[in-house]
Amino acid sequence: MTPTTDAATAAAPAKPAAAPLTAKVARLVAASLKRVPETFRPVDYPDALDTHRLIMPEAYVSLYHHPVYRTLTDEQKWRLGLLETVNFYSINIHGERALIVGLEERLYKNRVAWESNQVCEYLQHFVHEENAHTFMLAGYCNRYYGRVMPDLGLAFEQIRLSRIGDDLLFYGRLYVLEMWLAYLNGVAMLDTTLDETTRTVHHIHHQDEAKHLAFDKEVLHAATDEARARGLDEELRTVAAALAAYRTYALGRLYNPAVYRAIGIRDASRVAAEASGVAERRALEATWMAQCDAQLHKLGLRGSPPAAAGHGTGR
Ligand SMILES: [Fe+2]
Ligand SMILES: [Fe+2]
Q1: Which of 33, 34, 47, 158 lies at a 20 to 30 A Cα distance from 300?
Q2: Torsion angle, CA of 234/238/243/245, rounded to 10 degrees?
Q3: Radius of gyration for the chain, computed over Cα atoms and rounded to the nearest angstrom
Q4: Which of 207, 213, 211 lies closest to 179 in space, CA to CA?
Q5: How far is the CA of 39 from the centre of ligand 2 (A)?
């Protein structure tokens, strides 16, 4: 029996991975094999965090540039730093849960260069490492806050695209999320004024994220080249706009009225809206995302979010 075109296509081996992707993946697999931290006991959590040291790098506390910050007691400031760290880790957890689902869906497909068997091997390290991160972060949230904060929707929402466009959107969001979280991990792990346990958690997360980001970048290069070769310019623009909206959304989640309410700030929703609009804070956000923005620009994936997509709205 003659196989159908679809079946024949499905059975065909993937095109060989682009040379830079192949070389990068080989190095990343080796790095992952070399550094296998204890998955389920990465950190020896003490019973309590150090109350004499801040939990969040102070300049990065979402209210640091808002006038209300000067009215807070030291105890409220400490608590705000803790709750913002739990908020940040909770966003990490929900974002990484969603990306694990997306990575799992891309295993064993072998249709394009970034799905080759070799890449698939790395994806399994990736899934394993993200699972270990969410376990570590949830351990922190549960011990020092009592729970992981709820998922407010930082998920990978569906937009109808071709397969290549869909991969671009997935890996683009992955790149934005990981750049966003890796930046604060990098700042916090180097801040010697912070509680040591919190710094350790940031440090462990940062080590794996450096590998993930290198991988994301290579896949985005390969996938944008492929999209251009196939004339998918309209999809590239759609993806660029969706990534801009996702970036705005991720940053917006840092202003959590529930956190403000919990430390006794009145009119928390108004304060959240004001805090994200303070000029110094907007400048800090621009610095936070500068490398990510530059890379997306280089790839031709730096778009503007739709007018309605301000802080707190996603797409
Ligand atoms: Fe992670
Ligand atoms: Fe990651």
Answers
A1: 158
A2: 150
A3: 21
A4: 213
A5: 15
| Span 230-281, pLDDT tens digits | 999 999 999 999 999 999 999 999 999 999 999 999 999 999 999 999 999 9
Quote the ligand 2 centre to 267 CA distance (angstroms): 35
Tokens (6 digits) for 275 = 């805090």
Rounded to an integer, what distance in angstroms lies between the CA atom of residue 174 and that of residue 102? 10
In the chain, the amino acid numbered 272 is: A
CA dist 272 and 261 (Å) reads: 10
179's tokens: 């750049």
How many Å lie between the centroid of ligand 2 and the Cα of residue 133? Answer: 8
Question: Rounded CA gap, 235 and 219, in Å?
Answer: 17
Identify which of 130, 63, 48, 124 has the alpha carbon closest to the alpha carbon of residue 92: 130
Q: pLDDT value at position 21?
A: 85
CA of 262 from ligand 2 middle (Å) equals 30
- Rounded Cα distance between 147 and 140, Å, is 9
CA of 158 to the centre of ligand 2 (A): 21
Predicted confidence (pLDDT) per residue in 167-176, tens digit: 999 999 999 9
Which tens digits make up the pLDDT trace of 4-38? 333 333 344 445 556 788 888 888 888 888 776 67
DSSP of 226-257: HHHHTT-HHHHHHHHHHHHHHHHHHHHTTS-H
Task: Quote the pTM value.
Answer: 0.89
Residue identified by tokens 């929402």 is 157
